[in-house]
Design a protein that fits this description.
Elements: E1 10-16, H1 24-35, E2 40-45, H2 55-59, H3 64-75, E3 78-82, H4 92-101, E4 114-120, H5 128-140, E5 144-145, E6 151-153, H6 156-159, H7 169-194
Parallel strand pairs: 1-2, 1-3, 3-4, 4-5, 4-6
The structure holds flavin mononucleotide.
Flavin mononucleotide binds near residues 18, 20 and 25.
């Protein structure tokens, strides 16, 4: 298994598909930042300033928040998407951001990018369907979504405290193991791109 070079850390961009201040998915990314293995840096990007996709606007040039989003994806070795599930699907906020980042089609910043998909919900199914839809989207963008392990956090209200700290020990361990696997996944594609 590839391990990160301390001189060249694995740079990960964390994206939460929720704008809610007390979002569990944003809190999950903060926990990931804390629990990241040695050599992995996670920067969190806030989607609040990303407008709705509009091809007419795009034709005039990307709005600055979109350009900044694309630059952040481009600079990252891998993307970690923490998605809620809305009505058994991926929330529009997340899908809209991916739609912007998927353009222009053949030279998009998502092309060939390793991606991790995780999610948290107070519900019982742990965002399984939302995650599944998001993975499907990454087939078209030619992004490399890590197949296993998965991280599905159900009953999030019992696992995060009122300040949004991940307090459930077992979930912290699962997250840690997920991040170790994701680090190896990202490095694998990074090394392949160098060859
Ligand atoms: C429009 C809407 C639809 C939802 N649908 C689902 C759903 O299908 N499955 C689920 O587990 N939770 C569902 N929820 C509850 C969300 O999981 C919950 O609001 C969660 O806290 C959202 O993620 P966040 O904490 O990161 O904002 C829905 C919430 C909203 C607002």
């Amino acid at each position: 298994m590839a391990s990160p070079d301390p001189q060249h850390p694995v740079r990960v961009l964390g994206i939460a598909g929720s704008l809610r201040r007390a979002s569990y998915n944003r809190a999950l990314l903060r926990a990931a930042k804390d629990l990241a293995p040695a050599g992995m840096d996670i920067e969190i990007f806030d989607l609040a300033s990303i407008p709705l996709y509009n091809a007419d606007v795009e034709a005039q040039g990307d709005p600055e928040p979109v350009a900044a989003f694309k630059r952040a994806i481009s600079a990252a070795d891998g993307i970690l998407m923490a998605t809620p599930e809305y009505n058994h699907g991926v929330p529009g906020i997340m899908k809209n951001a991916v739609d912007w980042a998927s353009r222009p089609p053949r030279s998009a910043v998502l092309n060939g990018k390793p991606v991790g998909v995780i999610g948290a919900t107070p519900g019982l199914t742990g965002t399984a369907r939302g995650q599944s839809q998001l993975r499907q989207v990454f087939e078209f963008t030619n992004s490399y979504a890590m197949p296993q392990p998965e991280l599905l956090i159900s009953r999030a209200n019992e696992k995060f405290d009122a300040e949004g700290r991940l307090t459930d020990e077992l979930t912290r361990q699962h997250l840690q193991r997920y991040l170790e696997a994701f680090s190896a996944w990202v490095l694998r594609w990074k090394q392949q791109q160098k060859q």
